[in-house]
Design brief:
The complex is a heterodimer. By secondary structure, chain A is mainly α. Helices cover 54% and strands 11% of the residues of chain A. Chain A has a three-stranded mixed β-sheet with strand order 2-1-3. Chain A is globular and about 40 Å long. In chain A, 32% of the residues are buried. Helices cover 58% and strands 0% of the residues of chain B. Classes of the chains: A mainly alpha, B mainly alpha. Chains A and B meet through helix 4, helix 5 and helix 6 of A and helix 1 of B.
């Protein structure tokens, strides 16, 4: 089973599953290690990672960030207006006022956990 | 991780590394730190930047209470608070025994600071208050109503001829009218308020007089002589007559006069003027020489007065009788006195004139006291009730008086 799927599934504590590109999920070193078959984790065989300490809403935000990050990684030229705008939107989305207070704390905790 | 910068902000084309999720989340947390009161089991270094944003030490204390894991490491935060809140903290700050009690240090220092502040405020208030008082004292306030002037002090209106302006003329006329009104009131017998008050304060005249004055009594005790009625105002005035001294004694003078009178009466007995004789006889019988020493002229005058009085009431013989009965003879009665009295009584009752006999048998001055007494009592009774025909002297004096008893004779201000 060396064939690595393109998408992986991230499951939150309250059983929300998010299917994301493997590349995006692997921005987080923790997830990459978990999904690496050489480490012998169970998640590698199933291509799903279960997070008991992260709830659905926070995990959604995390996935959003994964994508945002990957986009950022790809763009090397800031001058690209498209990217810049994309970046702004992404940042604004994440750091938007509608961000609930509890969420930011939990997000912080998740981010710390995932070392993202 | 550097914070992402907007593309528009930078001129150079430099790759902008995407902010980490931690950063993003942290930034969000920092923005919402006021709503955070519990961190649960988060690491201190994760939220330290966010905690640094706390403005209220109480919130920090709350977070510490809810998440005790943080409490051990909040020293620097508390130090920051102390430095911010307490002036001169470098000298005052002290390390607590327990590193968890940094919040206590802060609280203690805060209390001390508050106390000193209060003291300073009080001192300032006192200083300012004193200044305020001084300012209030020196303040000049405008009074809307001035103290009313004393009416009595108003300047007098000038006389009409001295008036220089129209107002003065009016004032002078008004003053004239006032004085005239006052005079008119006085004529009617009205008194000013002050005068009424003063007069009412005086003791009333009725209360004063209890008995006849002594001089009057003495005066009346001196008997009227038998001498013919001398003119009321002779050559010698009554005053000078009273003053004259020396010469024969008064008793001798009186005796002499009585003898003269008796002679005259004998001569005039034949005349048909019986009533007159009667009156005179009456006078002669009832009167005896006065015991006190006085000149003859004065006695004559008194005699005349008494005659005038007795003339008025020949029919009122009863009075004399009453007087006689009332008066007891104090002196030892000699035979002559008794005889004399009997004779007198007869004369009075019968209305016949027997003055000479009675008079010639003149008794001693002592025995004369009874008739004097009687006479005095008669006079006293007379005084009590006013006569219908007052003597001319009295009449003259009465006329001098003003129409009202309290009325001043001269128009002057009653103060």
């Amino acid at each position: 089973m060396n064939d690595l799927t393109e998408y992986v599934t991230l499951i939150s504590s309250d059983d929300f599953s998010y299917v994301v590109l493997r590349s995006t999920a692997c921005i987080s070193p923790i997830i990459r290690r978990m999904l690496d078959p050489s480490n012998g984790f169970m998640e590698a065989s199933t291509n799903t990672v279960h997070f008991d300490n992260i709830n659905g809403i926070v995990l959604e935000k995390v996935c959003e960030y994964f994508y945002y990050n990957e986009k950022n990684k790809d763009a090397k030229d800031v001058a690209d207006p498209e990217y810049a705008s994309t970046l702004l939107i992404m940042v604004r989305k994440l750091i938007s006022v509608s961000f609930p207070t509890e969420l930011c704390l939990e997000l912080l905790m998740a981010a710390d956990y995932l070392d993202v | 991780m550097r914070a992402p910068k907007l593309a528009t902000q930078r001129h150079s084309t430099v790759t902008m590394p995407a902010p980490s999720l931690q950063a993003v989340a942290l930034r969000a947390t920092m923005r919402n730190i006021t709503n955070i009161y519990d961190i649960a089991d988060m690491r201190y270094d994760l939220i330290k930047p966010a905690l640094k944003k706390i403005k209220n030490p109480q919130q920090l204390r709350e977070i510490e209470t809810n998440s005790p894991a943080i409490a051990d490491q909040t020293e620097e935060l508390w130090r920051a608070f102390i430095a911010r809140d307490i002036p001169g903290w470098k000298e005052k700050i002290f390390e607590p025994v327990n590193p968890r009690s940094w919040w206590k240090v802060h609280a203690k220092l805060m209390r001390a600071e508050k106390r000193t502040q209060e003291q300073q405020e009080k001192a300032l208030e006192l200083a300012l208050g004193g200044l305020k008082q001084e300012r209030e004292e020196r303040k000049v306030s405008i009074l809307e109503k001035v103290v009313p002037e004393d009416r009595k002090r108003t300047t007098k209106a000038p006389a009409l001829r001295n008036a220089k302006s129209g107002n003065q003329v009016l004032a002078a006329l008004r003053a004239q009218g006032r004085t005239e009104a006052r005079h008119r009131r006085m004529d009617l017998g009205h008194l000013s308020r002050g005068a009424v008050a003063k007069i009412s304060a005086l003791p009333s005249a009725k209360e004063q007089i209890g008995s006849a004055p002594r001089w009057m009594v003495r005066d009346l005790m001196k008997p009227v002589l038998m001498a013919p009625p001398a003119p009321l105002f002779g050559k010698k005035t009554p005053v000078t007559a009273m003053v004259s001294r020396g010469g024969p004694s008064r008793q001798e003078i009186a005796l002499r006069k009585a003898e003269q009178e008796a002679k005259l009466k004998r001569l005039t007995q034949a005349r048909p003027q019986q009533q007159q004789q009667q009156g005179r006889a009456m006078v002669g019988t009832t009167v005896s020489p006065p015991p006190a020493a006085k000149s003859g002229e004065a006695m004559a005058e008194r005699e005349a007065r008494l005659k005038g009085l007795t003339h008025a009431r020949p029919p009122q013989q009863g009075r004399a009788m009453v007087g006689m009965t009332v008066s007891p003879p104090p002196a030892a009665k000699s035979g002559e006195a008794m005889v004399e009295r009997e004779a007198r009584l007869k004369a009075l009752t019968q209305g016949k004139a027997r003055p000479a006999q009675v008079v010639e048998a003149r008794p001693t001055p002592k025995s004369a006291s009874p008739p004097v007494r009687e006479h005095v009592v008669a006079k006293a009774i007379e005084i009590a009730s006013p006569d219908p025909k007052p003597s001319p002297v009295l009449e003259a004096t009465r006329k001098r008086l003003a129409p009202s008893p309290m009325m001043p004779l001269k128009r002057r201000k009653i103060m």
